[in-house]
Design brief:
Length: 176
């Protein structure tokens, strides 16, 4: 549990992805649990990134002004999770095949194992590695999820919210 952030959603997603059959279902209904496990894992990842950014900001002398950007990140994280939740519910109701594609892209893109590796790596190295390095690693993993979200969502403005997350991370990383 790196940075005191509950990583259970990472492991839950990984487990559910491993249990997926190779045959694609015709509609996303049977995949509902995996979709919401993905949403929860993404929320956990956003929380982890925020926790790391807080540590980075606390360690900065003379550049603590970047702390003013952290609430922007919190708001964008909350907004993206709301939009994705709405998108998943609507897609499930409509039987959108895009959601089936998303689940199998998540599985085949190794997002579950990547999140588990992130948690294990950060947990083992916390305290011995600079949080700035952890932020760089967590950002790379976050970008994997964001690319899949952008590719498989119908709301075009989701990319604007994801861009806001990237901007704040860049501001904090640039100040360290």
């Amino acid at each position: 549990m790196a940075y005191e952030v509950d990583a259970t959603p990472f492991y839950r997603l990984d487990e559910q992805l491993r249990e997926l059959p190779d045959d694609l279902p015709e509609n996303p209904q049977p995949l509902e649990g995996v979709l919401f496990a993905y949403l929860n894992a993404f929320g956990g990842l956003l929380t982890l990134v925020m926790a790391i950014m807080r540590v980075c900001v606390e360690r900065q002398d003379g550049r603590r002004y970047v702390a003013y950007f952290l609430p922007v990140y919190d708001q964008a994280a909350e907004r993206i999770l709301e939009l994705l939740d709405r998108e998943l519910h609507e897609g499930l109701k409509e039987g959108a095949s895009d959601l089936v594609d998303l689940v199998y892209a998540i599985r085949d893109g190794q997002i579950g194992p990547e999140l588990v590796a992130l948690d294990k790596g950060l947990s083992e190295s916390e305290g011995s590695v600079d949080p700035e390095d952890h932020l760089a690693t967590a950002t790379t993993v976050t970008n994997s999820l964001k690319k899949q979200i952008e590719k498989h969502t119908k709301r075009k403005w989701i990319s604007s919210v994801l861009h806001t997350l990237n901007e704040v991370i860049s501001i904090v990383r640039g100040a360290v």
